[in-house]
Amino acid sequence: MDPVEALREIAYLMERVLADPRRVRAFRAAADAVAALPSAEFDRHAAVGSWRELPGVGESTSAVITQAVAGRVPDRLAALRAEAGPLATGGEALLEALRGDLHTHTDWSDGGSPIERSKEAATALGHEYLAITDHSPRLTVANGLSAERLELQLTRIAELNETDGTRLLTGIEVDILLDGDLDQTPHLLAKLDMVVASVHSELRMPSEPMTARMVRAIANPYTDVLGHCTGRLITGGRGTRPQSTFDAEVVFEACRQYGVAVEINSRPERADPPDDLLALALETGCLFAIDSDAHAPGQLEFPAHGAARAVAAGIPAARIVNTWPLPELLAWSRG
Description:
Blueprint: H1 3-16, H2 21-35, H3 39-48, H4 59-69, H5 75-83, H6 92-97, E1 100-101, H7 115-125, E2 129-132, H8 147-160, E3 167-175, H9 186-189, E4 194-198, H10 207-219, E5 225-226, H11 248-258, E6 261-265, H12 275-284, E7 288-291, H13 303-313, H14 326-334
Parallel strand pairs: 1-2, 2-3, 3-4, 4-5, 5-6, 6-7
Helix pairs in contact: 1-2, 1-4, 1-5, 10-11, 11-12
């Protein structure tokens, strides 16, 4: 089989189960190194098995390339395929009804792959649309996009939308600042198809100011989705973190009044909002968005977790904005 495809499939299957990002990057780097070879150079390395001469190719990745070039499914890939199964059960019909994903990251901020790889994976999954929502500038630890870099990304997304496959939506995961302002210029926010507003700092501030902070962000006319509303972490390599405290009745009522969707964040370490708040948002009459918050192409399958939770909570598909056709979705977000 093609060694580049084999390496990328291995990386994808590892991402899907939250394998060590450094190991995943090794397989993607090796794939890029092989893909960049002129045909004569590829043939030379294939003839003598000198794959480890390539930058970024080590013992494990060299073995995959050698086995693929020999015409067999590499052992590593065969094992991962055998282990792969459904990420969650109970939300299959709703997952099938999702037309796209409104919260994803690329290597423009803290994601692991270029936009091109995200588009390829979304196309393979049958997504109608995919929002690219890299971080905003104040989140320096995540390489947040300055206004200038975001402008460049918009140009790149326009270029990629000239090719076949999933329609890429322009977007941002914008930080909710301490006073409730959004961390990007109104001029740029007005250009975007999708704005996910999230709290990433001072997560332990008292309930009253946190509530005011969130409500002000929700009331901002550019906000479309309230991202991972409690900020909790319940498992994973980053450790655990308790949920933020805020008046959820007030926050969800603001979401209802301003037409902002409450995100059902599908990352396993977040599962945000918790079940009780999910039930409250449903009772309040909120809209929802089931998002992957993917930081790698393989994580675009995470909405299986969110769909299962939404079905368990009794949320109807019509209230989930990314079950809507693209014209209806954009009419809502731009309205």
